[in-house]
Input
Amino acid sequence: MTQPTPYSQHSALSLAASGVPVLPLRRGKVPFGNCTACAGNACGGRPNMKIAGPCRCPGVCHAWAAATTDPAVIVSPSWAAAWRRSVCVGYHPGGAGLTVVDLDDAQAIAWARATLPATRTVATTRGEHWIYRGVMTSSNGVRPGVDIKSTMAYARYLGPGTGHLTDLPDTVRALAVKAPCPARPAPHTVSVPAGGGECCHRTPAYLERGIAMAEQRITEARSAVHATVYRTFLAVLSTHGRCGCLTDAHIGRLFTAAQAKGETLRHCTDAWANARTTLGL
Output
């Protein structure tokens, strides 16, 4: 006799059909642990969603990076076993082009209502999830009772919520920007515009040429793709990282070029973050 499909798996299939990468969450609302072959990330990491990568594990490994929109994976035997043990459905907001502002208590909700633009809202056990259209770096504890979940993170699916999605505001992006510590010396010296006038990099042709050259450098890489992507990100950030010229669209173009060469979103995000850290940004 055919076994009934767990309710959580039904929800996951519905979400995946709408383009939201999903994964099962176990007791404690946390991802399932890695299998023996993937322990300690020995396999090299799970490919992000539909992008090919080194890990061929059929299980639900690597937490948020296991999230998928592929129904064949969601109903596979190894995932079916996880669904039977799961307590809820998780999803990767960044993979769906979303950012979740996780408000953990009444005080955080009051702050959001007074500060942030209205958007889709989902009630949680103690607070609310405010969901915006757009992606950014995830960060916990950006202010009391407030976490941000987008790239390289997962959130618990708690229903469709109420209200309409609105674009991710700069107010939320600014929450994840950490002020540099005055006591920390700059790791590297980088070139910055001289003269104190308007940033010359804002000249459209100059910036466009730089991004196009970076895309070409990544696209033409025949070997050492990881290293090429990192060095290219480093070069772009050393020129444009301090003056506010780069937009999400520019970064997205670089990530797209890297992913076309087989890089995962996770590797792109890590390389970008490492380049920023190297330059003290």
